[in-house]
Write a structure and sequence with these properties.
Layout: H1 8-11, H2 15-36, H3 38-47, H4 68-73, E1 89-92, E2 102-105, H5 107-123, E3 131-134, H6 142-154, E4 157-159, H7 166-175, E5 180-183, H8 185-198, E6 208-212, H9 218-228, E7 231-238, E8 243-249, E9 256-258, E10 263-268, E11 282-288, E12 299-305, E13 307-308, E14 320-321, E15 332-334, E16 337-339, H10 341-350, E17 357-364, E18 367-375, H11 378-382, H12 388-403, E19 408-412, E20 427-429
Parallel strand pairs: 3-4, 3-5, 5-6, 6-7, 17-20, 18-19
Antiparallel strand pairs: 1-2, 7-8, 8-9, 9-14, 10-11, 11-12, 13-14, 15-16, 17-18
Helix pairs in contact: 2-3, 5-6, 8-9, 10-12
The structure holds 5'-O-[hydroxy(phenylacetyl)phosphoryl]adenosine.
């Protein structure tokens, strides 16, 4: 049966009530963590904060932050708040440098995560009558298991496809009449491209897609919606805080509602750590108030975004976060100028290029170089009158205008840039500025 919300009483709870609930849970969680996690107790002691100092969310700013470095330092079990024998699962980030981040879950933690993903599915219009096609990777990555769990909870028929084998994905989509597609936006774009090549769009029954785990632009949304014939919804999350479903888009498609009954969100100035007022752009910080095994307090995500309490027409009262506008740590500084990959993507897509591109940064003779390889679309490649040199000049000018620095544009043939079945590798920075 179709419903508007998965848990209406929570998702539409008056803001004052949410805050009251957050305060109560925070006080309990701080006490729990102080008593059970020596690593965090040491951090609190160092900052001179005792659990009694935290009487509600107004005191949250007194607590120390946690960063990925702390997680690495405490690896593997230093931040566990429950005995390992109470845990039923781990997940891990795909981090290639340093030690991995591993998050632990009790059954309670899995249940609440499933609820969050079920809320996201319902917000995208899913019900127990839908066929949910999960093409996020299964395994240590949280994407596959997360959406799988949400879909089960909702009672939808779940296709645990995992990523890869695009021909088989499309065949199952047709044969099983998949209605909701869950995968990374870059894989959705690739699926859209393959569907177009096979000429099978009219055999698909897709109505919505839930795409996240990496940054994507509005231009890319339009492209995917068009190629797959669905409405594309954003979903946000991170392994440390549970996985996908920390926040999700509703039909408004204007920011993602954060599941505030489980996670308290703050925006801070990434340089000073100061908490910023609503509406200001800064680094997103999460405190998990209901998790048992791996409850993180004031975890710095490095994602830059803006929060909004503006009333949403969907009726949900939970605060909305903007799409991440970059990361406080993935921003590239090229010839002294701050460059975000999303700016480059916007220029490419606004100029009718394909979504298959790669940014290569290097340093030659002490000068940074920026090269952008982008595939021409099959239509452009087939058009004998197409003027690649003119297009290259046009893109170079648009890029200079957007970034403030010039970039070398290389138009390459379709299918020459390696496709991703998970998160796309958009940036290759050969400068190795950070010693990795
Ligand atoms: O990417 C969890 C996830 C799986 C989210 C499936 C959505 C869908 P991690 O691998 O730990 O977890 O990566 C977390 O990915 O801090 C963001 O920088 C980025 N990210 C996640 N969702 C989005 C999004 C999963 N919707 C990191 N838009 C986060 C932009 C996102 N960036």
């Amino acid at each position: 049966m179709e419903k508007r919300y998965f848990q209406p009483e929570i998702e539409t709870m008056p803001v004052e009530e949410i805050k009251k609930r957050q305060s109560e849970l925070l006080v309990k969680q701080v006490k729990n963590v102080y008593e059970n996690v020596s690593y965090y107790r040491d951090l609190m002691d160092k900052k001179g904060v005792k659990p009694e100092d935290i009487k509600g969310i107004e005191d949250l700013h007194k607590l120390p932050f946690l960063t990925k470095d702390d997680l690495r330092e405490a690896y593997p079990t230093g931040l566990l708040a429950r005995p390992k024998k109470d845990c039923v699962r781990i997940h891990s980030t795909s981090g290639t440098t340093g030690r991995r981040v591993v998050a632990y879950y009790t059954q309670h933690d899995i249940d609440l995560w499933d609820d969050c993903c079920a809320r996201a599915l319902v917000a995208a219009g899913a019900s127990d009558e839908d066929v949910v096609h999960v093409s996020y990777g299964y395994g240590l990555f949280t994407g596959g298991f997360g959406l799988n769990g949400g879909s089960h909870k909702l009672g939808s028929l779940t296709l645990p496809m995992s990523s890869g084998n695009t021909d088989r994905q499309i065949q199952f989509m047709i044969d099983q009449e998949s209605t909701i597609l869950c995968c990374t936006p870059s894989y959705a774009a690739y699926l859209g491209e393959s569907v177009k090549e096979k000429g099978v769009k009219d055999q698909l029954k897709l109505k919505a897609g839930i795409f996240g785990a990496e940054a994507w632009t509005e231009e890319m949304r339009a492209e995917i919606e068009n190629s797959l014939g669905l409405k594309a919804y954003d979903i946000y999350g991170l392994t440390e805080i549970s996985g996908p479903g920390v926040a999700f888009e509703c039909e408004e498609q204007a920011g993602m509602h954060i599941n505030e009954d489980h996670f308290i969100a703050e925006i801070i100035n990434p340089e000073t750590g100061e908490v910023l007022p609503e509406g200001e752009k800064g680094e997103l910080v999460f405190t998990s108030i209901t998790k048992e095994a791996f409850p993180l307090l004031r975890y710095r995500t490095r994602d830059l975004c803006v929060l909004s309490r503006k009333k949403c027409s969907c009726g949900r009262t939970h605060v909305r976060m903007s799409k991440p506008l970059g990361r406080s740590d993935d921003m590239m500084v090229i010839r002294g100028v701050n460059v975000f990959p999303s700016q480059i993507e916007t220029v490419l897509l606004n100029n009718n290029m394909s979504v298959n591109y790669q940014i290569v940064v290097d340093r030659v003779n002490n000068t940074d170089t920026l090269d952008i390889n982008v595939e021409v679309t099959p239509e452009m490649a087939a058009d004998l009158t197409y003027d690649r040199a003119a297009k290259t000049r046009e893109l170079s000018a648009a890029m200079k205008n957007m970034l403030g620095i010039s970039a070398k544009i290389h138009l390459v043939n379709p299918h020459t840039i390696v496709r991703s079945e998970g998160k796309a590798v958009r940036v290759i920075d050969n400068r190795k500025l950070f010693g990795h």
